Amino acid sequence: MSNTEAVRGGYVHLGAGDDEARVYYEECGEGPALLCLHTAGADSRQWRHLLADEEITSHRRVVAFDLPWHGRSLPPGRWWEREYRLTTGEYARRTLQLAEALELTRPTVVGCSVGGATVLDLAWHHAAEIGGAIAVEAAAKIVGRFSDLSIRPDVNGAEFVASWTYGLMAPQSPEALRREVWWIYAQGGPGVYRGDTWAWSEDWDLRGHEGEVDTARCPLWILCGEYDYVCTPEAALATAEAIPGAEAAVMADLGHFPMSEDYGRFRPYLLKALDDIAARSGRPS
Amino acid sequence: MDDEDFPGAAFFLRLGRRMATDPELAVCGRFLDLAVGFESDGNRQVITFHEGQLVGVAPDREDGVDLAFSGSHEDWERFLSREPPPGYADVVGMDRRGDTFSITGDATVLARHLRALSCVLRLARAEATAGAP
User: Fold this and answer.
1) Where does B1-111 show beta strands of DSSP type E?
2) Read out DSSP for A99-159?
3) In this structure, what CATH number is given to the domain that contains residue B123?
4) Confidence (pTM)
5) Which ipTM value was assigned to this complex?
6) Is residue B1 situated within a structural domain?
7) For A131-173, what is each residue's pLDDT tens digit?
C-alpha cells in the first residue's frame, strides 16, 4: 500500500539579473488559492500539515514557498557581498511575484510571525491583489527580537536560534512536533533568522496606519496563540481592534507556531477564518 | 523553605541524579561548564555544572556566577508546574516581562548554553512534578 503524500514540489525563477532567485514551492489541491508564508528563519515545511489536509485541498489549491535564502530557495546573485536584512515589503514583493508566476488569482494569504506581518503589509498595500488575509502571530508592532547573538563566532547560531524560538511554543503541543520546529530552525542559513527579524521587529510598523487597511476589499483575520510571549494576544487583539472590519481570535493551548506545533488545534481557527473570508468575498469556501 | 523543594539543596541533588541519566543532556550538555544562581524570594542556591553534569550545590560562591535566574516563589511555582500557564512556560519569556523574574549575566553565555540550560530546566520541571497527580 502506498504511503505517498499528494503534495508536489517545484521550482520557479522569480526576478531577473542579480534579483533572480530560484524559489522552491510545494502545492496540493485544486481550486481557489491559499498561499502560505513561513516564519523568520524557517521554510515551507512549517505548512506540511495543511498541505496534507485533504478536506481543505479537496477544494483549495494550497501553496507554500521558501522565501529566497530559506529552505531550498537559494539567495539571489552576489549574496555573499551583502548583509542579509529582510523587510516586509520585500517579502510581500516576492509573494506577489510567486503568485503571478504560478497564476494564483487573488490568493488568500496566510502567514505566521514575519509572514504574518507580511500578510498585514499585503492587506495594507496590495488589497486588490489578494483575496483575503490571515495574519498569524502578527501585530502592528513587535519589538526586541533583532539581535546579533546568533551571528557571533562564539555562539552556535543554529542551536541558539532553535532553542530561543522553542520557548515560544505551548507546553501542551506534542513534543515531537515542537522538536520538529526546533530542527527546522537549526537548519537556517547563517544570519538568516537575524535578517528576518529585522523585518519583523525593526522594519515593520503599522501603528497609526491601521485605518488604511481596507478589509472591505481584503477581508482580514488575525490569529494569536495564547502562549506567544513576543507577539502577545493583547498586541494582536489591539491591532485587530484598530483595523476597521478585522476579525481576531486568541487560540488556546497554542504558541507562536500553531500550524506546526499542533495543527489539529490550529485547524478550527483556520477553517473559521477561511469560511468567513470566503463568505465576505463571495467566493466558494 | 523546605529543603526538598526548589530551590532547596536536596531538590538540586535529586535534579543532579536525574541529569546524570538523561539521554538528551548526554548529547547536548558536553560543554556545559557554568556556575548558575537560582533564587526564589531571596532563597538562593548556586549550582555548578561541569561537562553537563551537576557537580556542586552551595548557597553562594566566592567566584560569583556566570548566570542567575531570579524570581518570586509564584514565578517558580508556575514555571515548574506540569502545564505552566501562558507567560510562565519559558524563562526567556518570563525575563522579557521585566517584572518579578529576571535573568542576569552575560547574554552571550546564555545564548551559548541555551539548549543545555533549557534541558536542565525541563528536568527541573520533571523533578518538581514527579509524583504529583
Assistant:
1) 34-40, 43-50, 53-58, 67-71, 102-105
2) HHHTT--S-EEEEETHHHHHHHHHHHH-GGG-SEEEEES--S---S---SGGG-TTS-HHH
3) 3.30.1050.10
4) 0.96
5) 0.95
6) no
7) 999 999 999 999 999 999 999 999 999 999 999 999 999 999 9
Pairing of strands A21-28, A33-37: unpaired
Q: Per the domain annotation, does B34 fall within a domain?
A: yes
Cell (9 digits) for B46 = 548556586
Contact B108 A229 (CB under 8 A): no
Cα separation, B8 vs A126, in Å, equals 58
Mutate: best of B82, B83, B115, partner A, most A CBs <10 A: B115
Q: Find where cell 542567575 sits.
A: B68
C-alpha cell at A107: 490568493
Do the chains contact at A154 and B114, CB–CB below 8 Å? no
Instruction: Give me B73's grid cell.
Output: 516563589
Higher pLDDT: A82 or B132? It is A82
Nearest CA in chain A to B88: A227
According to the model, what pLDDT value does residue A262 have? 98
Cell numbers for A243 = 483595523
Task: Give percent of chain B with pLDDT exceeding 70.
Answer: 98
Structural domain of B86: 9-128
